[in-house]
UniProtKB/TrEMBL annotation:
EC number: 3.2.1.55
Pfam family, one: Alpha-L-AF_C
KW Hydrolase (keyword) present: yes
Reactions that this protein is recorded to catalyse: Hydrolysis of terminal non-reducing alpha-L-arabinofuranoside residues in alpha-L-arabinosides
Enzymatic class: hydrolase
Keywords: Carbohydrate metabolism, Glycosidase, Hydrolase
Designated name of the protein: non-reducing end alpha-L-arabinofuranosidase
Source lineage: Bacteria, Bacillati, Actinomycetota, Actinomycetes, Propionibacteriales
UniProt keyword Lipid biosynthesis, yes or no: no
Annotated family: Belongs to the glycosyl hydrolase 51 family.
GO molecular function: alpha-L-arabinofuranosidase activity
Length: 511
């Protein structure tokens, strides 16, 4: 039996839960937009072709903000192609994903979708093939009330009121050789600074995100952030991080410890940003936008994801890139990645799970068929709903495991929030052990527990195992009520099944 002890002290908090931690991402890639978000003629489509079943699941997820339109796609994208009468929009080659982009879905359609989904728009500008002028023009088109050629073009295109988009990404993964128009840190830093200056001249009420490294293993990691922030520190509000974890080599123990790596990644970027702040005598705090994060599918010949190499050779429209079924293990890892983001909510203010539909999606759809919840849907929806009030700075001691990829890792992973207003304590716990249950002893300081309001667990389903998945035909995996949490001696006793992620909500009063 794995043993762990958690101390919750109501005075040890990190600050309010940033709602934007529960963001996602919609890119013109694979079937995320076409036959994911929009599918004219589908039985669930509304008059504009938006899939109502996907909208409903997006609302159920509690997604707060959605990044659009890419990703690598944005670095070759001309935003003008996606506005105006649909029948006049050009079909274009998209070099990033080797597909044909029909441009029948663009900025207006996305803003309409976002309003229906109840999410904030996070718009990316193309700093790959384009630059300051086009970034400024897109902003004017989107946000200026009227009386100029660009803003009046928006009005003629059906949007009388400005879109009011506050949050903008200055390009995407500009350090990556795969990126159309990728740049050195100095080239990008200068361009991002100039774009930021020009955009703030059009609209001074913006929040801007500069590109950090594409992942922690980029050879330029660290130096890239330092150089980019040297150019942009006073002009931007966030530096971005991206990561995708997978059980690609069958080392499940390492995969389960992915959040240990995410913790280190975040702390390394915070340290680099704070170094630039100290060295250059800045006063403001640089925040982090983790605007792409997720797990990818375990390599398993018996469970093939659509191989990218095969489907990206043609010039097809919306080929099914990067689709597959997430299993229970991947659901548990996503729960721990969400906990890592929450534990760093004093510096990580935005996070976007990538991507919302089909491609590594929390939601999957069939063209002409149903939409359903993947395993990774459940921890996201549960945490978005239960995390409220203040993030707790928890003291955790746990039995540990040594992993090949990330070294020592606690077998029990925990994060939590306390909402004084509603009197709710929420704990998000994972047991990383593949074989043993875990006993978690939770001590409360300054809080008196009432009843356990809800306790739900994501684990291997009845008759299944950690490789169980949901599909169009059957959805055996989900969060289920479980009786593993009870109030004992002014604290809590929690018993987690092997390989599980759980959310426990307890009524508490301040002592
Ligand atoms: O999310 C898929 C792709 O992964 C994005 O387009 C890119 O930014 C990242 O490398």
């Amino acid at each position: 039996m794995v043993q762990a002890r958690v101390t919750v002290d109501r005075d040890f908090t990190l600050g309010p839960v940033p709602r934007r931690l529960f963001g996602s991402f919609v890119e013109h890639m694979g079937r995320c937009v076409y036959t994911g978000v929009v599918e004219p003629g589908h039985p669930e489509a509304d008059a504009a072709g938006l899939r109502r079943d996907v909208l409903e699941l997006t609302r159920e997820l509690g997604v707060s903000v959605v990044r659009y339109p890419g990703g690598n796609f944005v670095s070759g994208y001309d935003w003008e192609d996606g506005v105006g009468p649909v029948e006049e929009r050009p079909r274009r080659l998209d070099g990033a994903w080797h597909t044909v982009e029909p441009n029948t879905f663009g900025l207006h359609e996305f803003v309409d979708w976002a309003r229906l989904a109840g999410v904030e728009v996070m718009e990316a500008v193309n700093l790959g093939t384009r630059g300051v002028s086009e970034a400024r023009a897109l902003l004017e088109y989107a946000n200026h009330p009227g009386g100029t050629e660009l803003s009046d073009r928006r009005r003629r295109n059906g949007a009388e009121e400005p879109f009011g988009i506050k949050l903008w990404c200055l390009g995407n993964e500009m350090d990556g050789p795969w990126q159309i128009g990728f740049k050195t840190a100095d080239e990008y830093g200068r361009l991002a600074a100039e774009a930021a200056r020009a955009m703030r001249m059009v609209d001074d009420d913006l929040e801007l995100v500069a590109c950090g490294s594409s992942n922690l293993s980029m050879p330029t990691f660290g130096a890239w952030e330092e150089t980019v922030l040297t150019h942009t520190y006073d002009l931007v509000d966030y530096i971005s991080l991206h990561v995708y974890y997978s059980d690609r080599d069958g080392d499940a123990e390492s995969f389960l410890a992915s959040a240990v790596d995410m913790d280190r990644f975040i702390e390394a970027v915070v340290a680099t940003a704070d170094f630039v702040r100290a060295r250059d005598r800045h006063t403001k705090t640089m925040y982090l936008s983790f605007d792409e994060w997720n797990v990818t599918y375990r390599h398993d010949p018996a469970r093939p994801a659509v191989p990218e190499a095969e489907i990206t050779r043609g010039w097809d429209e919306h080929p099914p890139i990067g689709e597959g079924d997430f299993d229970v293990t991947e659901g548990v890892v996503v729960g721990t990645l969400l906990s890592s983001l929450l534990r760093h909510g004093d510096r990580v203010k935005i996070a976007n799970q990538a991507q919302l539909v089909n491609l590594l999606g929390m939601i999957r759809t069939q063209e002409g068929g149903p939409a359903w919840r993947q395993t990774v849907f459940f921890p996201f929806a549960a945490m978005a709903a239960a995390a409220a009030g203040e993030i707790l700075r928890l003291a955790v001691t746990s039995d540990r495991a040594t992993t090949a990829r990330y070294g020592e890792a606690d077998l029990v992973d925990v994060s939590g929030t306390w909402d004084a207003g509603s009197g709710r304590l929420a704990l998000f716990l994972a047991n990383r052990s593949l074989a043993e249950d875990a006993e978690v002893d939770v001590a409360l300081r300054g809080l008196v527990p009432g009843e356990v309001l809800s306790a739900r667990v994501l684990a291997a389903p009845e008759g299944g195992d950690r490789f169980s998945v949901n599909s169009a035909e059957a959805q055996p995996v989900g969060l289920v009520d479980w009786d593993g949490a009870s109030v004992v001696d002014g604290g809590l006793a929690v018993r987690l099944p092997a390989l599980s992620w759980a959310v426990v909500e307890i009524a508490v009063t301040a002592a």
